Amino acid sequence: MKNDNPLSPHIQIYNWHISSLVSISHRITGIINIIIITLICVWVSLLVLGNSNYDLIQKFFETYFGKFFIVGTIWSFSFQALCEIRHIFWDLGYGFEIKTSNITGLLVIFGSFILTILIFGRNIIL
Amino acid sequence: MVQINLPKNSEVQKGEYYKDKTGSKNIRKVNIYRWDPSSGENPRIDTYEVDMDNCPSKVLDLLNKIKNEIDPSIAYRRSCAHGVCGSCAMNMDGKNGLACTKSHSEIKGDINIYPLPHLKVEKDLIGDLSTLYKQYHSVEPWLKNSKKDDGKENLQSTEDRAKLDGLYECIMCACCSTACPSYWWNGDKYLGPAVLLQAYRWIMDSRDEERKERLKKVADELKLYRCHTIMNCTNACPKGLNPAKAIASIKKMLATS
Lengths: 126, 257
Ligand code: SF4
Ligand code: SF4
Ligand code: FES
What we know:
Number of strands of chain B: 8
Mean pLDDT of chain A: 90
Low-confidence stretches of chain B: none
Shape of chain B: elongated
Distance between the termini of chain A: 68 Å
Number of domains of chain A: 1
CATH superfamily of chain A: Fumarate reductase/succinate dehydrogenase, transmembrane subunit
Order of helices and strands of chain A: HHHH
Number of strands of chain A: 0
Helix content of chain A: over 70%
Bound molecules: iron/sulfur cluster, FE2/S2 (inorganic) cluster
Oligomer: heterodimer
Strand content of chain B: 15-25%
Structural class of chain B: alpha/beta
């Protein structure tokens, strides 16, 4: 039987928790990372085709947007890596209490920024 | 399928405004989702000004007050008023819970009340849970045991009984399942946290003889693995149970068996 009754509001009204925010970001960064990996592959292939390509890409990385791209990439991969570690613990059966999952969620968020600073900052300092 | 937007006929409109008539100084605004199947119109949000000086503490009391004193046409489910029957599950202040155990003083600002999310609405705050009940039926939530009835008790050790703690308390209110984004998008295939917690309850029962078959049944990729540990379910459960953990335990049993 077809039911034409309205559908009650869902994502429009539901509150976000740390857990759901981290989860959705995990998925989004996953997609972004696939795109970035593809770009890196294209970049490497371009290098095979000649020196001038290297210069071009190097120039791009020196622009503000290029820098933003690098920082974004580092963050996205850091976030993904930390999320996956969190998932390993879940798979082993740990960390399901609301409190624990909120703490590990926050650790993932802050950790991803700290990792980004450490990895990118290394470039500036050295 | 992930569909973020509500269908056209489900878009919520501004409804009526019921001004306070008591002259009370202690007024709160309560916004309630309304839909009347006989009207042919879209759902709407009606706003009621309520005199809080003469209102008991729970959201259900608030609804009763509105129904008794302001607008008798509003429909919602309730029975026990003590957090036992699970009828009064709804979305309050952006979170699923039982209206009879949720205090309105916990809610800041205007009080927003919606039906449980992503259900076909039957009327106002009443959502259609028949799919969930069918899914519940599909896990065969009863004891399967070949023992002949010899008039004696079917005994269980204290330890085995303890394994059901945190599971048997579930009142099937559906707060968890209707809080789960995976259930929203795949409710036709994914069993959802409430039903999986029940499935686990029977898998863990030492007196049940069909653990293997039960596990096999829920092992179906879509039925179970749609859970991405978003934890909305555990956050929502008004009985303090942990469906996300129960699901993980099933996954672990499957992985190690
Ligand atoms: S943990 Fe699993 S069942 Fe619970 S809300 Fe998330 S996806 Fe749904
Ligand atoms: S697990 Fe909790 S939220 Fe889910 S149906 Fe049972 S009592 Fe309700
Ligand atoms: S009325 Fe029974 S649980 Fe709220």
